Amino acid sequence: FCDLSNGAVDVDVTAAATWTSNATDIVPHPVAGLVQGMSEGTATIRATVINPDSTSTTKTHPITVTTGELIAVRVEYDDSEIPAGRTKPFIAYCDYTDRTDVLCTLDVKWSSSRTDVATIDSLGVATTHISGGQPLLRRCDGLHVAVPRRPVDL
Q: What pTM does this model have?
């Protein structure tokens, strides 16, 4: 949010500002004031607004991008039973030491250790099967995720 004031009125100029970064390998040029870190390091974000009198006003802000280490993968799902041949979506969240909580459903590798009971695709959607008198999938038993190194998000 970028705020300018003429002494009497504050005006949100976030959308009107031209946003730049001095280190685009760390933080690419922001879009509408939103930044995304791409690698560890420090960058300076600059917002420039053209004033009604054709002068410009520029504000800068330093940004430090850090990465945390993965400490947990949480899998969320509807705990109800599902009949054989039906599907159930699973959602993965990755928790990091820098206190970020990232939706990582598409970034993890899903697999099932009991493919006779259920298979799961790359989108985290499980399909149940009838086998050995186990026509229902309950909870997350036997489903596994593997997490690659995450992108850096601010």
A: 0.50
